[in-house]
Amino acid sequence: MSTVAYEIVDVFTDRPFAGNPLAVVFGADELAGDQMRTLAREFNLSETVFVLPSAAGATYRTRIFTPETELPFAGHPSVGAAVTAVRRGRVMPGQIIQECGAGLLPITVTSDTATVTGGKPTLGAALPVPELLELVGLDADDFAGGSAGPAVAGCGLEFVILPVRRDALARAWAHPDRARALGVTGISVFAWAAAERTAYVRVFCPGVSVPEDAATGSAALGLGVWLVAHGWLPGEGTTAYTVHQGVEMHRPSLIECTVTATAGTATLATVSGHVVPVARGDIAIPPFIG
């Protein structure tokens, strides 16, 4: 039976069994999309990334799957794939280019860390507060945005960004039926510590069969876009901020971020983190289904 090689790595952590677990698959060049999706369901992690040759001049190409759908971009698969490719000797450390559904993205990578530059920042209109609070099981007293309303933001993959009180985080949970009714596939619920420029975050992705994510680089990028838009981070220059996530899941994660802004609008954002290998092996190739 034919197989492909894989590794399980923990991303956005410097120790095993924390952060966000990721399956990184190599040698899947001839697999069809439905075969990749079948493997992602078998791994049953929030995301599985396939590292493939690029025909666009990039260092390599990635395809990223949740157990249910393919994503154009995601942060922890991009960080995890880059570090794993370097550690396995497939890519030299330094500046590389990743091709994915969101375009050609620069990555600076070593044997255990990577910094990913997200795609073009996007920010949507303000969204209704009561409905979003109800979606995550919270009430009006838990909202901490003041005049800064929740909105969809991202840098290649968008999330609803919802500011709440820190003591509300432990009670938050995304209800799939409510999310479906509002058309919300992913929501980042965060508490902001302004003095430390630190966010404490929970990310729920009911639209892609991920009840909660332990570390979400793409949501951390979108958070930076939102923070600049509402004046919670400077509107000029490059500013660092930190995201703590996964605590309630007993998988603490640390995401180091920057956002660059001009005239109060984010123009570029990055996420950085460590990657720790925890398992490796070979997995059978599923039959072609399409």
Notes on the protein architecture:
By secondary structure, the chain is of the alpha+beta class. The protein has two domains: 3-114 and 275-284, Roll (Diaminopimelate Epimerase, Chain A, domain 1); 122-273, Roll (Diaminopimelate Epimerase, Chain A, domain 1), CATH 3.10.310.10. A hairpin with a 7-residue loop joins strand 3 and strand 4. The protein has an eight-stranded mixed β-barrel. 48% of the residues are buried. It has helices at residues 33-43, 75-87, 129-135, 176-182, 217-229; strands spanning 3-11, 20-26, 48-52, 60-65, 70-71, 94-100, 103-109, 113-117, 122-126, 151-154, 158-163, 187-193, 198-205, 210-213, 237-245, 253-262, 265-284. Helices cover 18% and strands 42% of the residues.
Key descriptive features of the protein:
5 helices; eight-stranded mixed β-barrel; globular; alpha+beta; 290 residues; Diaminopimelate Epimerase, Chain A, domain 1; 17 strands
How does the major sheet shape up?
A: 8 strands, mixed, barrel
Counting structural domains, the number is 2
Kindly state the mean pLDDT as a whole number? 96
Strand order in the largest sheet = 1-2-3-4-6-7-8-17
Provide the low-confidence segments as ranges: none
Task: Report the count of strand segments.
Answer: 17
Supply the CATH class of the largest domain: Alpha Beta
- State the CATH architecture of the largest domain: Roll
SSE order: EEHEEEHEEEEHEEHEEEHEEE
